[in-house]
Specification:
Oligomer: single chain
Low-confidence stretches: none
Helix content: 40-55%
Largest sheet: 4 strands, mixed
Order of helices and strands: HEEEHEHHH
Strand order of the largest sheet: 1-2-4-3
Radius of gyration: 14 Å
Length: 131
């Protein structure tokens, strides 16, 4: 079994790489995440995460980034050959920012939910690309 890591070569590094994925216009989303995808010539999956301040405090944003990164790290061999930019879905951000229930919604978001969402969206994006 190969060692799973999230090294520098597994990351999208810079504005141009993010923009090239976003320009590909392959977008899929569900209630939790929105994923943009584009083929790459590397043969290895790469990940970029974009989380705006509208999601909440730095603690909330960093927790979401950790969950997304871990879901990618554990499943990167299954989704090779595609660059992904992942961000929280607008509906999820709105739910988290509700005055009374927002923190509960966020705290109930588990790693399992994020991983399941990411994998299903990555599969749908690769089908759209034709990979």
């Amino acid at each position: 079994m190969s060692r799973l890591s999230f090294c520098k070569s597994s990351r999208l590094g810079g504005r141009k790489e993010f923009e090239s994925v976003l320009a590909g216009r392959v977008r899929v989303s569900d209630r939790l995440l929105a994923v943009y995808a584009a083929k790459n010539d590397i043969g290895k999956a790469r990940l970029g995460i974009s989380i705006s301040r509208s999601l909440g405090s730095a603690v909330m944003r960093n927790r979401m980034k950790r969950l997304i990164r871990e879901a990618f790290r554990l499943n990167q061999e299954k989704i090779a050959g595609i660059d992904y930019v992942v961000m929280p879905a607008p509906g999820y951000v709105n739910a988290v920012n509700e005055p009374e229930e927002g923190r509960k919604v966020f705290k109930k978001t588990t790693f399992g939910e994020v991983e399941k969402s990411f994998l299903s969206l990555a599969r749908r994006a690769s089908e759209k690309i034709g990979y």
